[in-house]
Amino acid sequence: MNTQPPPGEAFHAGERALQAEDGVREQLAMVGTRVIRDHMPQQHRDFFAQLPFLVLGSVDAEGQPWASVLAGPPGFVQAPDARALRVDALPAADDPLAAALSPGAPLGVLGIELPTRRRNRMNGTVSSLDAAGFTIAVQQSFGNCPRYIQTRTPVAMPAGTRPAGERLARLDDEAHRLIAGADTFFIATAHPAAGHGGSRDQGVDVSHRGGAPGFVLALGENELAVPDFDGNRFFNTLGNLLLQPAAGLLFIDFDRGDLLHVGVRGRIETEGAVMARMPPVERWLRFEVTGALRRRAALPLRWGPATLSPYLP
Q: Which residue in 35, 56, 113, 206 has its CB near the most CB atoms, within 10 A?
């Protein structure tokens, strides 16, 4: 499969294939380059600067994507100009992002404001790294709709001592309880060329997934299934999975600040017995867990009760 996008095309081969399958290829070919910019408009720059946390996607040395989250007082993320995003925070040593963060490394960025359901995406590469934080050179910038985001209000907590991250070969009972009750998770995916000199359309992506508690199904000890609710039909996440099945999931314990990073191999399915247990969807994602990392009290934020999105099916 030729994964190089044609000149003037905003989407790579995996995304285009799924758009064609849905009958929206021509429509998105026309709007893609207008909606997906190579710079941040002023409203996106202002938006990132007011956030208390930032979700990031990275890839490790083996090509495994990971989703991570950094937090700080509003203003810890700033856009000094339309083509750069400065993050004045660094990941802890046990965060998968720590080993992946180096000049030239591809990153996916999601700014999401849970109280207002606003979100914007930015993908780029690390242009500089220092003792206080890092700067990302913008390659793609675009907005997302508010559907499926559950509202929560964050409260900052003082940083304290915490245990080192705990590696899990398989999901244990505690991990399954967190996943079973989740109404939100984040997923990092990557194009096969990410980190190997690919074009701006061939990097890392991180996105939000939301649903009513229980929308992530356990099919067994180490297998999960998630409905693919209708969205903007860009197919950024699914397009990457079509070409490269490795992905990283991030589940947040919003009461305790614990983080569960889950490495998976995913595939897109359109039929099977699981469909009967899903809300009405055309596709679902099936994930085989390859490993996980639990990081207790790693996020210095706590949230109140969630208000579920009115857009949920």
A: 206
Tokens 């040593």 -> residue? 93
Nearest CA-CA partner of 108 in 200, 184, 41, 244: 200
Domain extent listing, the chain: 13-156+164-303
At 37, give phi and psi (nearest 5°). -100, 165
Q: Which CATH class is domain 13-156+164-303?
A: mainly beta
Burial of 81 (0-12, 13-18, 19+ CB in 10 A): exposed
Kindly state the DSSP code that residue 186 receives in the 8-state scheme. Answer: E
pLDDT in tens, 30-56: 877 788 899 999 999 999 999 999 999
Residue 282 confidence (pLDDT)? 87
Collect all residues with Cβ–Cβ distance below 8 Å to 248 and sequence separation of at least 6.
57, 64, 65, 66, 67, 96, 187, 188, 189, 261, 262, 263, 264
φ, ψ dihedrals at 242, nearest 5°: -60, -35
Q: In what order do the strands lie in the sheet with 53-59?
A: 65-71, 53-59, 106-113, 118-129, 134-144, 84-87, 77-81
Lowest mean pLDDT among 79-93, 187-201, 238-252: 187-201
